[in-house]
Each structure stands twice: as C-alpha cells, then as structure tokens.
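Obj: model holo form, ligand = iron/sulfur cluster.
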Amino acid sequence: MKSVQKENSQIVSNSYQGKKYHIVTYGCQMNVHESEKLRGILSVLNMSETEDIDKADVIVFNTCCIREGAEDRAYNNVIALKPIKEQDPSKVIVMCGCMPQQKKGKYNLKEKLPFVDIIIGTHNMNMLDQYLLKHAITGEQIYDIIEKPVTGMDNAKAIRDDHLNAYVNIIYGCNKFCTYCIVPYVRGRESSRLPQDIYLEVRDLVQNQGYKYITLLGQNVNSYGKDLKYPMSFAELLKYLCTIEGDFKIKFMTSHPMDFTDDIIKVMKTEYKVAKTLHLPVQSGSSRILAKMNRHYNVKHYMGIIKRIKRAIPNISLSTDIIVGFPGETVRDFEMTLKLLKKVKFDQVFAFMYSKRTGTPAATFENQIDEKEKNVRLNKLLRLQKMIQKEQIKKYFNKTYDCLIRHINGVAVGITDGGKEIYIPGYKYVNQNYFAPVKVENIRNHKLSGVIK
Ligand code: SF4
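Output (holo structure tokens):
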C-alpha cells in the first residue's frame, strides 16, 4: 500500500515539475519574507518562477488586510483573473495570508471566488505544496482556514530576491491589541523562535551566503523571548547574534515603544554590529488619542526614549509611523502630532490616513473623521515632514558614519545605517560591499559627499 501511495505522490508531484509560478505580494516586510519562503516551498515541487503572470501555471496572491486599499487591490486583481481561468482551467490560482484569515472580512472569499483553487490563511501557508498536490488529485477547490499554526514557516527554505539584506523572523503574532489593528486577530498571539535557530540561520546567511544586513522581523520584536521556556530578552538576543563572526549589521523592525527598554539602547550603542537606525512607531502626538488606540504608552514615555537614544547615539537615524484622522482626533490632537514631528525631527515618516478595519474596536468608535478632512491633515503633515527632512540634511555635515561601501554607476558610495547615500568622488575602489567610516565633507543640491576615513 505504502509503495502505491509513494508512486501516486510521485505522479502528482511530477504534475508540477517544470511548471512556472508567479507570486503577487501585498503588505509589509513580514509578507515579503513569507513570499520568499513560499518560493522555497514551490521550488520543492521543481517549479520555477516567472516574472510574467500570463506565463504562470500557478499564481499565488499573498494578501494583506492592514489597510482597506491593499485588500481591495488584492481582491480586484484576483477577480481580474476569472476570464483567464475560464479560458485555461489548468491554471491554479491560490489566495493566502491575512485576507482569508480574517473572521469578519469585507469579502466572503469562499462564496465570491469559486474559481480560486486554493484559499488558505496565515497559519497553514507552509503547507502550500501539500495543498497543491491535493488539488492535483481532486481538482476541487480547497478552502482551509485554521486557528493555530501547524508549524511555523521556519522550516521552509527562503529564496530571497535581495542579496545584501536578508529578512529573518524572530517572533510571530502580537499581544498588544491596538484598537485599529487587525494583526492580533489574523496572526495570533506572540510566539518567539528559539534563539539557537535564529543564530544558525543568521550565521549561515552571513558566513555562507554573504549577506551584509540581517533584518530581524516581528510585529513587535522588542517583545521577543517573553514566551520562551527559558526567556531571553530582545537585547540579549541582539548581543548573542553579535557574537557571529563576519562583517555585517543587524537591523530590526517593528519596535513598540512600550517594550523598547534601555537595555536595547545600551546594546545599540555598544555593539558595532547593531545598525544605528531605529523605526519606532509613535502613531499620534496626543496622549489622549494614544489611549484610545490602546498603545500602552503616552507622549512623555515616547519622548523619553527619543531623548535617551539621541543622547546615547548622536548619529542615530530615526523613523516612525503616524495614523492621521483616528476616530475622535480633534484639530488640537492633530496639531500635537505636528508638534511632536517638529521636536523629534525624524529622518523619515510613514503617515497614513486611518482606515476602518471590520472586526477591530476602532471601527465602531464614534466621531469617525471625514475622509476629506483626513486627507487635508495628511497633506499638511507630509508638507511639514518634507520641510523637516530638507533641513535635516545639514546635520550630516562634518560627521562620520559607518557605511556600506558600494559602487553605483561607477562611483563609490557609502550607505549609512539609515540608508542615506554619501558619494565618495575620486575613491579608487577595488572591492565593494564592506563597511568603512565615511566623513561627510560636502552637501550640494541635497546630495552628500565625503571621504573614507
Ligand atoms: S503592536 Fe499594535 S499595530 Fe502593531 S501589530 Fe500589534 S496590534 Fe497591530
């Protein structure tokens, strides 16, 4: 019996051999990295990737439901494939990730997308190869949304696009329940990977695959390790990873101000391998709105972190996320956000208009802000940030930054931990992709240039 089963699975597995797949990814870095793992899973079936969706035998939509826009785009793009599927029923369409995982999603995917062959959520994407094999046998639609992860995606090999920066998951899920966010409902509670597994993955990426940046990923990386049998803090994990030999830097995202401890600042300051850049979402400059968002911190707490990190690491590059027009946000609340931007002077701000997510508490809050008003506030904020960034360029003058030295269009360029480019005219480079200190000596037309020290 066993050998017949083995033979069957061989036949089925061969049904994908040499076929092509195309993955469309929506959303954050977590999704981008999960798509890298989906590539690894599909390669096990001996399939290869195509950039051209029309040439693909298997089309995978790895979806996001954080914002309504991303959800609508994914839905419309899947719907657009209906005539193609009718013309060629042998094409396999897969929809996976956050959209199907929502309990009260905007779209009833099972009913509205009968032509989609496989619909799975966030917790069973690692089984895509098995779903494909099953579909090859039955030819029927598979709709499988499960509540808890079977096993994480950890065991899947990632096929990465980027050859300099590698994403590495350290924690899945989130326990924070911000009132506007759907993530804890679709990704579940926090679950940290074992430190030794992370260590081995990072060591391999650095020493065998030549990666220069490792970006540790999680919805809230600062909460790392609390759920482990032998707890380990995020600061301790950073220190542990810094013991890996090699010329590389560690970045991480996303941080949460509530869990961002002074230990982390200390490791960032003392460990050369931890990049001097921090993305710390504030979301609003009004403590009243932060409480309504259930962010677990107030403006004073946030500004305290900013003050301490700037003092410890003067060259730190800071970025943040802002939600404009949260329910009940008054003009005064909004002005407080502008005031915070002026005070902190972020190098980069990612600002979004609040968008209602069905199934989250904030979607039912009173005093939802008019779309037109949200738009006016967003544009005002973006204009202010543009001015701040223009001014910010001056801070680089006469300072030295640890940079990754690269060749861009035949010129040597140093890239700071925060991603700023410093041109190094006249530098006779031999190699590239190594770290060296670069001093900024000129600023012209918002471009920096300098010398290697
Ligand atoms: S911290 Fe808040 S915004 Fe971030 S994933 Fe968790 S619930 Fe969502």
